[in-house]
């Protein structure tokens, strides 16, 4: 890269004309700790998560260094860090909500509110709901969910448009959800259980 003009900084900005590795490293060392402290204070995150977020923001700045003017680097980092922290908080809230739902389901099952269901019975219910789907809709559903084909591959195999496949899958999923509504929570818990292992 081109050499930078003289580096000088005040409390808010670190000004260079063009980034090079030395000026970027100096900027990183000067700003990293204060950005971590600010992020941790503002968003009440753990220190490790905060460091990860700030470090990722610096990586993004380095990757976009040709597009982000050095005089706007601090503002860019603050924006990226804020967005990443909010995303992290939202993701954490979703995980916590899901954990409460799964825990609540397990507690309800322990309390006897859910009948114990045999895997064969559940399988029969799924097969019954599947057999009730109209012909082409059932074929599309089976090719997608059981054989793992893409919508494009299904469309080619059945000589129909991808849009028709999408419509048929949407309708099939709606019908399956309706038919298996009593078992949806159990199915979701089972699917999640198997994804942990």
Structure description:
With 197 residues, the protein is an all-alpha fold. The protein folds into 2 domains: 8-105, no CATH class; 115-196, Winged helix-like DNA-binding domain superfamily/Winged helix DNA-binding domain (Arc Repressor Mutant, subunit A, Orthogonal Bundle). The protein is built from 8 helices and 2 strands. The protein is elongated and about 65 Å long. The model is unreliable at 1-12 and 109-115 (pLDDT under 50). It comes from Filimonas lacunae. Keywords: Sigma factor, Transcription, Transcription regulation.
Summarize the entry for a quick read.
This protein has 197 residues and is mainly α. It contains eight helices and two strands.
Secondary structure blueprint with pairings:
Blueprint: E1 8-9, E2 14-15, H1 21-43, H2 47-63, H3 73-110, H4 119-131, H5 135-146, H6 151-158, H7 162-179, H8 184-196
GO biological process, one term: DNA-templated transcription initiation
Protein name: RNA polymerase sigma-70 factor, ECF subfamily
InterPro entries: RNA_pol_sigma-70-like, RNA_pol_sigma-70_dom, RNA_pol_sigma70_r4_t2, RNA_pol_sigma_r2, RNA_pol_sigma_r3/r4-like, Tscrpt_reg_LuxR_C, WH-like_DNA-bd_sf
Keywords for this structure?
197 residues, mainly alpha, Arc Repressor Mutant, subunit A, 2 domains, two-stranded antiparallel ribbon, 8 helices, 2 strands, elongated, disordered N terminus, transcription, RNA polymerase sigma-70 factor, ECF subfamily, transcription regulation, RNA_pol_sigma70_r4_t2, sigma factor
The percent range for helix content is over 70%
Q: Report strand %.
A: under 5%
Q: Note the main sheet.
A: 2 strands, antiparallel
Radius of gyration: 27 Å
The number of domains is 2
User: What is the string of SSEs from the N terminus onward?
Assistant: EEHHHHHHHH
